[in-house]
Amino acid sequence: MATQLAPEAPFTYRSSPTAIEAYEEWLAANPQAAPVHTQPWDVSASAIYVEDRWGPIFAEMRAKAPINKVTGTPYGNYWNVTTHKAIQHVESLPELFSSSWQHGGITIGDPPEGTDPAKLAERQMPMFIAMDRPDHTGQRRTVAPAFTPAEIARMEAEIRHRTGEVLDSLPWGEKFDWVDKVSIELTTGMLAILFGFPWADRRLLTFWSDWAGDVELTLASDLADQRFEILSEMARYFQGLWMQRMGAAPTPDLISMMIHSPAMSKMSPLEFMGNLVLLIVGGNDTTRNTMSGIVHALDQFPDQRALLEGNPSLIPNAVQECLRFVTPLAHMRRTATADNELFGQQIRAGDKVIMWYLSANRDETVFENPNKLIVDRPNARRHLAFGHGIHRCVGARLAELQLRVLLEEMHERKMRVRVAGDVQRVRANFVHGFRKLEVVLEKR
Ligand code: HEM
């Protein structure tokens, strides 16, 4: 990432193309570069998520070979880890299974082949999600105070107010896109509140986050410069906010909190920027896709919707069950730092190990009838949608709050959301969710 930050550089706000549009345009212009996935257990193929046919593939792996190696894919060779127990095991050994970007980071995508290592290091955003101990520990501490139960409780009134406003602006009885009008709107609004980000610019957060987070872009080497340019612009924007708040009295937003944190003195400006980006990306499409996924899942299971409508005290549990059912991040990656045996499989140092949360959350040895949404499921909380261990999602409480408030405010308004049109899923193997979800609102 930009080691030379230029605070005075003018912003040229980018509103188009979005990351997915750029990637699709690039694929159309370079059809020969389209990734070819030939193996049945190569679950890096984004088509299986777009077409929503991943379920039986993972079920077969869990039954026949829960830890298996796939070779020669567009993402190289990798291990699939598909069960709840094995993923918890891998996450519990962070020294043996590294998250560090120097080893390859946390997604299945590697930098385009032949990338100059110096250029790669220069462009690397240092984020604590892609660090091992001890660096990870210190940097996580700088943001953790923003997510304590007391801080989350402090944010509840504002999030509730904002959620109500968005729901009250929706048309009843007329088709609209829930992703655009609700999921994106609420997620960017929450992040703007969290960061004290200028309200009018909040959709930039989605635009940047999509460019920063899309793993499939790593296959399109031609887009690397464009991506870098957009992310540099984002870094300049945040640097502007940072400079504004540097000399000012502390405010309750996350940027000010980080600036005034004692650990800040140990963080370079670049690390500060990297961690801000991590929070934007981490909190963005995950929450957005859960908000869409909840509506879709309740529509698919009308008996469960009726149960919830009749008993709103089930909402907190339903939030956990929806997180399990939706699993908005399909995977996280680790890289083995030494040869080891993983439940009978020989893993070699340097091997890429992919933990498929999507599969763990359908593990039939943990979740009875896993393909059904069951809002009063007794062990819904055991889901791994937030990961496990030292990297478990730092924003989990905030995400849970937003989802709970959304369901409560929908209940308050007797709002039933019926899927009634185009449903498009995200073309990705990392972010798992909806690009478009046309719905109609009905009074229950
Ligand atoms: C880490 C999921 C919302 C910030 C993670 C991880 C997952 C995850 C799977 C990695 C865990 C691991 O490697 O074990 C989710 C889901 C969310 C969500 C499903 C919403 C439904 C948020 C929000 C924020 C956030 C709202 C902040 C605004 C982060 C950060 C990390 C992280 C900073 C890195 C933690 C670390 O490395 O120590 N999240 N997340 N996430 N998430 Fe979230």
Explain the layout of strands and helices.
Layout: H1 19-29, H2 47-50, H3 55-64, E1 67-73, E2 76-81, H4 84-91, E3 97-98, H5 117-123, H6 135-143, H7 149-168, E4 176-177, H8 178-195, H9 203-213, H10 224-246, H11 254-259, H12 269-300, H13 302-310, H14 315-326, E5 331-336, E6 340-342, E7 345-347, E8 352-356, H15 357-360, H16 396-412, E9 415-425, E10 434-443
Parallel strand pairs: 2-8
Antiparallel strand pairs: 1-2, 3-5, 4-10, 5-8, 6-7, 9-10
Helix pairs in contact: 7-8, 7-16, 8-12, 9-12, 12-14, 12-16, 14-16
The structure holds protoporphyrin IX containing FE.
Family: Belongs to the cytochrome P450 family.
Pfam family, one: p450
Protein name: Cytochrome P450
Overall geometric form: globular
Give the uncertain stretches in residue-range form: 1-13
What is the H/E string?
HHHEEHEHHHEHHHHHHHEEEEHHEE
Spatial separation of the terminal alpha carbons: 50 Å
Question: Compute the gyration radius: what is it?
Answer: 21 Å
Mean pLDDT: 91
CATH superfamily descriptor: Cytochrome P450
Give the second-level CATH assignment, the architecture.
Orthogonal Bundle
CATH class: Mainly Alpha
Beta-strand percentage? 5-15%
Major sheet summary line: 5 strands, mixed
Beta strand count: 10
Question: Which molecules are bound in this entry?
Answer: protoporphyrin IX containing FE
The assigned structural class equals alpha+beta
| Structural domains: how many | 1
Strand order of the main beta sheet, please? Answer: 1-2-8-5-3
CATH topology, anyone? Cytochrome p450
The tally of helices reads 16
Helical content stands at: 40-55%
